[in-house]
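Check these lines:
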Amino acid sequence: MKYLLRYLLLSALFLVATACVWQPITYSAKTAAAVEKAVAEFRAEPSLDTFFEEAVAYVIFPSSLRAGTGFGGALGSGWLFEGDLPSGRVAMFELFAGANLGAQSYRSILFFRSDKSLKKFKKGRFEFSGQANAALMNKGAAITPSFNQDVAMFTQLRGGLLIEASVGTQRYDYFPLGKGRYE
């Protein structure tokens, strides 16, 4: 009986943890509205014009959450666009350590300058790291690189209270959008 209960508990935990993988990936009208708003906010920044022009693709994360107290993490869900069409959903997970305290909400965008970097990203488990930022409510600054190995990331703070100087790694998982998956 003890082993049966343990087996059922582990099975239930496994089903809950993998449920998002079993759901069909769709790009709904509600998702499209949030994505279009985030893209418009980034396009409003003249310093990003070159990145939009040179990129073969980009990933937009309309809203991500980040929190830490010495150690921390971040979560986000976004969409990969090749040309003007979404080609898949992207999940972002981040772990970091260092001097940090608080939480913030932000949006981010990754630009891919070459087909080689895009192909590497789509293989899965793409990692990207390094940043420092400070945010108070919706005012703040974030330091991000220019193209580094043909990938560039930029963030816009949306709100929260976070002071951070940390080292970490971000992991991105790509899930292709199937044909006929637009709602």
